[in-house]
Amino acid sequence: MYLKKHEKNYAIISFFAQLICAQTPCSNGKAGIYPCKDYDLLSNVPVNILANTNGNPEGSDIWGWTDSTTGKEYAIAAMTNSTAFVDVTDPVNPIFLGRLDSNAGNNYWRDVKVYKDHAFIVADNVGAHGMQVFDLTKLRGLTSAQNFTADVIYNTDFLGSCHNIFINEDSGVAYLVGCKNFRGSRIFNGGPIFVDISDPKNPTKINHYANAGYSHDVQVVKYDGPDTEHKGKEIFIGSNETEVTILDVTDKNNVIKIAEIGYSQTVYTHQGWFTEDQRYFILGDEQDEQKIGMNSRTLVFDFEDLDNPKLSSTYFGPSAAIDHNGYVKGNLFYLANYNAGLRVLDITNISASTNSMTEVGYFDTHPENDATSFNGAWSVYPYFASGNLIINDIERGLFVIRKSGTLGLENQELNKSFSVFPNPASENTIIKSSNNQFVKSVQLYSLLGQKVREENNINSTEYVLNTKGLKKGIYLIKINNLRTSKLVIK
């Protein structure tokens, strides 16, 4: 159903009034107002665009979807009262496509994962919400905001709220954890509920497991790590409040506890992620900074022997900001560090007992401070093929960022033969020869390499390029098919 006319008009006006859409490079430690190191700001969509106006909406989880048919990239931003869908294919000019409202009012947390072109959404601390299933192919071809409805509401066992969801794409099974019934009472001790989602619009419960305690967050893999005894099995790693629990969930009717491991100064075992070789598990304790008084702490466990896991090393960040969700891609660990924003850690040396991780970049979405409080970056999604990263910030909404100097079309500075001014430009920019060399042709490309202007057979020493009507952002200008420079449209 489309937004009501006045709501739609307000959304469009508000969107363009508040969207930070021009790329802001990280220069001298800042991208605009945001502290940064080696990561540029591409765009920001604020909370009041993403969420509906009920209550006091905030940002929470985030995930991404790449359309296998079109190759377009979409951000799925979870809010306290809804889930927003944003086309970020052009990261400098994101398109807000609408939202799916909560089934049961506002809550503090909402989590989402994707499987077979469908989003699976759960919410915590709210009544009869269940699991929403939304067909993401509905986003294809959209250019304006809509209000969406879920395709399926899964609420077997009077499933009300769940803290989290994980999907093992190898098996087509969703793991719902930290769940409660309609009345708000914990079910199955907060342990995992196994749901077959191989047919996304027909989710079917397989079983549940209640003998390992409450799982706050989880990762499940088809195991291909160094422990040959468990190769090929479906292994569940639960961050279970006071310890990490390892389960063999290959047979959902015969779950086997493999091991559990704690660590010193445990406060709240929150969330973790495997390295890509499944040798190390990187874990965050969400409340140790606040309750004990230490800088942001990340623990690395050696899972070479799943039956005998060991603490391998501990990393302390540069501030006392609270660590939240973290994900591995290649040799980098992307950590949403609340008030300290996104921190990027190099884990090439992760096997070392000391200095196992090194901070190599950051983008601080909460410039006010790096205090030990629950503000700022909630989560990050680093898995787009484009290399763009998306962050969901509690107060400031969706950020799209990118590692500095990694544009698909690399810049080759103009030599002294031509000048381009003004730059930044608005309606026009002038290309002028400084040595009587003719400007023969001019092409202008978007950040994604799409040609947006082309003029040929110019044959003049000075040419005025019309840039009126172009979206704000960074473009690449090519002169005589040889020389390229950046052009900023403001």
How is the topology of this model organized?
Blueprint: H1 5-18, E1 30-31, E2 34-37, E3 39-45, H2 47-50, E4 59-66, E5 73-79, E6 82-87, E7 95-101, E8 109-115, E9 118-124, E10 131-135, E11 146-148, E12 152-154, E13 159-168, E14 173-181, E15 193-196, E16 204-208, E17 217-222, E18 234-239, E19 244-248, E20 256-261, E21 269-274, E22 280-285, H3 288-291, E23 297-302, E24 310-316, E25 326-329, E26 332-336, E27 342-346, E28 358-363, E29 377-381, E30 389-393, E31 397-403, E32 418-421, E33 428-433, E34 442-445, E35 451-455, E36 462-466, E37 473-479, E38 483-489
Parallel strand pairs: 7-11
Antiparallel strand pairs: 1-2, 2-28, 3-31, 4-5, 5-6, 6-7, 8-9, 9-10, 10-12, 13-14, 14-15, 15-16, 17-18, 18-19, 19-20, 21-22, 22-23, 23-24, 25-26, 26-27, 27-28, 29-30, 30-31, 32-33, 33-36, 34-35, 34-37, 37-38
Main β-sheet, spatial strand arrangement: 1-2-28-27-26-25
| CATH level-1 class of the largest domain | Mainly Beta
Looking at the structure, the CATH topology of the largest domain is: Methylamine Dehydrogenase, Chain H
The end-to-end distance, rounded to whole angstroms, is 35 Å
Specify the oligomeric state.
single chain
Please tell me the overall pLDDT.
90
Whole-angstrom Rg: 24 Å
- Low-confidence segments, ≥5 residues, pLDDT <50? 1-21, 408-415
How would you sum up the global shape? globular
Total beta strands = 38
Share of helical residues: under 10%
Tell me the number of helical segments per DSSP (H or I, 4 or more residues long). 3
Structural domain count? 2
- CATH architecture of the largest domain, please? 7 Propeller
* Computed structural class: mainly beta
